[in-house]
């Protein structure tokens, strides 16, 4: 409260006109003012004498009742007297208003803070006649001020030392403040100029979502969060987690805090974990998990379209042999080299995977059957070059089974299965080749898994579920028959009738081909003896030999023993091998020579389909060529097939070999073969493969 001199003079002059007003003013000052009002009369010295104090003075200070007329010295403690005397004297001498604060310790130990304004009142000569003091209790407001400062400082240190970037923006997204972590983050994101708006920071892709959430925050007063990346000049996107927090003052939104956490380390770790989960440790190729995911992705992408993709399952031929002979370290090195070679084919439409072991996969997108065929061929060609490892040369050939989406399967499971089955077929045909899945491959086994098939096959011999059927081979000159091809049949009580095309590849893969093959040798020899003994017929039986059987070290012994056991003429036994079995000449030549020495007949099955080479025929002691049924099938309608068939017949004749045509189903085919001077023929036109019972009935 300010009282100027004139007003006070008026008060003291007791002006009649203003009596009422004076009374009211006095009443207010005396009884209603919360601030203390002291009026001191100044006497020479200077001495200050109490002239007036209002009620607030009595309420707040313990002042004596009879105060008016007394001096400071009379009333105050020594310390207080000295202090106030000094302050008032200063007003007296300077003739200027003075402001001071003071603190008083209360009886209960608390402190009482006050702020006083001393105002001099002058007489006509300009001397200080009175001093009016107005003292305010500022204890509470001081405390509040202190608290405010403290909480402001606490908030500052929270923001300034925070590891997250905190950027405050107004309602338009204009940046108001950035904490040190924010400065660092923006520098890391390669921002040279200080941005004005938050929208200059957020990466383009994430802008719409960010704007959306910012608006949502404005509308709802609720925090929002998102994962985004910051804009950068060199495309080095910095991943961040963003939280948008409203700044509310008395429930009114003033702006927002944009709190950003640098996620690049976390992203890197997550990327590393992802890499490990989806890659093969040894070769760095994608693994089986990645394959499954990618097939599914591809299926999802192509749903409803006409576009196809191919799954190639690649298995290295004789890899187990390399592993067993040279050890796993060499084996691993070779797998790495194979991976490198396959990776040469890698591009955005062609991904390479390793399932484990020596099994690789390729997923070929946007392809056709014809394109896939050429692709498979190019892989085979690439493997014609040998591998070098510690100056040792290795030849590795792959066998490739192919399934096509959607014809061969529309789920990852069926596509893998059908490609595997196609692969079995390649192995059966003598490896180092490729084959597409065809639905006939898997007629009876559609719902049987490979594991239960294997379990059943293991028991097949001891349970006597295997049987040999015999297909007559007809002499085309006189329509007689003196030889049969033995074809294996498996009648499983659990799985029904299973054709050799389905279980022979599995038998080869599991090694079961060895006991099964031995059973075939034994059964065929026994059959030759039976027919001779009981029916006095010298029939020759041809048995099919899998390439795997050639790796059996005691093969010759087993055949020799069977021949001796049943006392048969060795030339009554014929061994059919495929061109694939002859490919590894180093392995094949000694075995075939020994067989020849034994006196058994050797024939080449499915001649013309594998890696036919005239050099085989020259090098190997071959007696019989069997023209593959694929040529015979179209011999009447396809000039090329007709030419191949006649050429093989001439070749055989000139080299002194017997030639047997397979798969003869029509009279016209037989006629063609007779005209071409083919020696023998077999096929449904003459007879289906027959059981022993049927042979006895029809031939004996
Ligand atoms: P393969 O040696 O080429 O046998 C000829 C296949 O053609 C046989 O099929 C036979 O039943 C079938 N066939 C015969 N005449 C005709 C005809 O006129 N038209 C048609 N379309 N097909 C005819 P199968 O019995 O299913 O045998 C398939 C393959 O399984 C054989 O082909 C052979 O490679 C293999 N196999 C059969 N038995 C054995 C065996 O004991 N050991 C081994 N390792 N493989 C065997
Ligand atoms: Mg055969
Ligand atoms: Mg054949």
Secondary structure elements and pairings:
Elements: H1 5-13, H2 19-32, E1 36-43, E2 47-53, H3 55-60, H4 72-75, H5 78-94, E3 98-105, E4 111-122, E5 128-137, H6 139-160, E6 165-169, E7 175-178, H7 180-188, H8 207-220, E8 224-230, E9 238-249, E10 252-262, H9 264-278, H10 288-302, E11 308-316, H11 319-326, H12 328-343, E12 350-356, E13 359-367, H13 369-382, E14 387-389, E15 392-394, E16 398-405, H14 412-428, E17 434-436, H15 450-460, E18 466-475, E19 481-492, E20 496-498, H16 500-510, H17 513-535, E21 540-544, H18 555-566, E22 573-577, H19 579-583, H20 585-598, E23 601-607, H21 614-619, E24 624-627, H22 629-633, H23 639-654, E25 658-661, H24 667-675, E26 680-681, H25 692-699
Parallel strand pairs: 16-17, 19-21, 21-22, 22-23, 23-24, 24-25, 25-26
Antiparallel strand pairs: 1-2, 1-5, 3-4, 4-5, 6-7, 6-10, 8-9, 9-10, 11-13, 11-16, 12-13, 14-15, 18-19, 18-26, 19-20
Helix pairs in contact: 11-12, 14-16, 15-16, 17-18
The protein binds ligand C2E and magnesium ion (MG) (2 copies).
Residues 605-606, 626, 662 line the site of one magnesium ion.
Briefly characterize the structure.
The chain has 700 residues and is α+β, with helices and mostly antiparallel strands. 43% of the residues lie in helices and 25% in strands.
Could you please describe the fold and organization of this structure?
This protein is α+β, with helices and mostly antiparallel strands and 700 residues long. 43% of the residues lie in helices and 25% in strands. The protein contains 25 helices and 26 strands. Helix 11 crosses helix 12 and helix 17 packs parallel to helix 18 (555-566). The model has no long low-confidence stretch (mean pLDDT 89). Bound molecules: ligand C2E and magnesium ion (2 copies).
